[in-house]
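User: Hi! I'm a student and our assignment asks us to look at how structure tokens line up with a sequence. Could you show me two examples?

Assistant: Happy to help. In each example below, the sequence comes first and the structure tokens follow. Example one:
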Amino acid sequence: MTTPASRPVPPVAASPLNLRGAVDLSALKQRPAPSAPGAAAPGPAGAAGAPAERPADHAGRPLRVDVTEGNFQELVDLSAQVPVVIALWASYSPGSGQMVDVLEGIVESYDGRLVLGAADIDVFPELAQAFQVQAVPTAVAVVKGQPVPLFQGGADEQQVRSLFDELLKVAAANGVTGQIGAGGPGGAEPEAPPLPPLHQAAFDAIEAGDYAAAAAAYRQALNEMPADAEAKAGLAQVELMDRLQAISGPEADALRRLAADEPDNLEAQLGVADLDIAGGHIEDGLGRIVTFIGRNFGPERETARVRLLELFDVVGTGDGRVAKARQGLARVLF
């Protein structure tokens, strides 16, 4: 069966989508979620047509979240507080990535009354299937866990603002009137405490796309304070982001084929595990390395074990899928 994510779909004129009664989000909502939207592993950097990722703001809550299997549950839950706009895009459609950037700017102008979820249908094809996407870009909102159609194809800023204004009216009629980052009377936002200097240096380096410098800052933080869990997790994340820069598009497809053909090829298995984690397929990524460790011995087994522990930090040591992978690791080691 051909899915929207497996072939380009020609752009169409903007039109309303009739999704009511046709979309079942329940299967997607059953996936475990991390502690906050946007906390899942980062996606591959520099993908063709990919909209730029922005840092979190508004008292630590991002108004733009890259949607994955891992964080979709919490975004649906968040829609009970503020409407969540889901923008579905694909790398084969550069215009759809540009539309996400436009939507991000518009969402930011609503001062936390809306949240944008950018969903790459190549990474999360199940979402495209659930929303019955026929073309990209497609925009759908979620209010109290229920889909609200917005538009399919292109739409200019005035049209989008009119749709968002109507969306907020629908949300208010259903008791959804929250605001991300609102901090009491007057809506003032609480001032976030400053980051430790080395953490700030790492953040600034990530913003500049210099993952090597970010990793160096986190390593220095760990040298000064070995128990710094945030620095440890940050180091694992930027190292993953750095590795993913070299794996995208055809390279990723070739790597998956190699891993399927050569199950004992360490680099291929680790590379595909990185892709799985970045794409939100957490159990697949961790399970792949556990399986490799169970089949192999010597230096390669230890290399795989160390990488697995790093990916535990990326996902979050409190995540249930990490606990499950730890049990699998213990079984194959002992």
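Example two works the same way, sequence first and then tokens:
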Amino acid sequence: MTSQLDPTKLKLADSHARKEILFRMAVTGDRLLVGGSDAIVHDIDLAAEPTKDVRQLSEHRGYVSGCVAHGNTLISGAYDGKLIWWNIETAEVIQVKAAHCRWVRNLAISNDGALVASVSDDMDCHVWDLQSGQKIRTLRGHADKTPQHFPSMLYAVAFSNDGLHLATADRIGKMIVWSLETGEKAAEFTAEKMYTWDPKQRIHSIGGIRSLAFSPDDRLLASGGIGHIGNIDHLGALARVEIFDWSKNERVHEFAGDKHKGLVEQIRFAPNGQWLMAIGGDNGGFIQFYDLEKGEILWQDKAPMHVHDVWMDDQQIVAVGHQRIAVWKPAT
């Protein structure tokens, strides 16, 4: 990438309706390989007709909530606990792994395409060799239960850019940074304000960290979620981002939001590390950019849906979510 987007000059350029909820995507050229609520990986040509599928990859049973790709290989993970390796060119199944005993919440892929990590409601993080499909190690350090003895979930996972570390995050806002070489914990800390427990009305909790990202130099770890919620039946709290200097266990930024409510489903650093993008939603959606030098919101806009995943290059931002695909481009 020779340049990068200027967040202050973006505008919503396209919005395409879909029938399903789109959770996670992998991008190859203009093709989006997107996991849906209908248990299908949808092969969508963004440059042609984003409302219609080129192909449908259908072997899962339940929400497809993880998609990563490298070369001609796609890996998908779903509510059924399975990971499926696909040949992108032929849409054929290469292999199927009964990877987890509960919902696979998310997948991540290392920068070199060698490793894939999966996280699940069984609270395990598995690291896989992408080419062979062999499990390299299991990382387990998050509690099965919340402090109130309810089931927890392992929502988010991210590789460091240098491939030396992996971060995981759960329902109560706990983050662990792991050494991939040894499988041991390198750091551990919690964003307490991203977890809400209602001990009176609903006897229930909500929140958790839904997204993680390392800065380009791997010094910082950003986490996205939601602030304290008054009514836990709804996502009625401001979107929240906290950034840590993870090796020092220090919080260096805390963006509590100013008007957009809901979960921060995905976060992305600028290639030069100057800003951070956060995207997500509740009933509606939002896109926000934070100036990391000034510690303030740089630019923000409504999204036409609750966004679950996003991809960007120096020409556009493509987001998928509740029954819609949205595209932001520089204003001309």
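Here is something you could point out in your write-up. The two ends are 21 Å apart (CA to CA).
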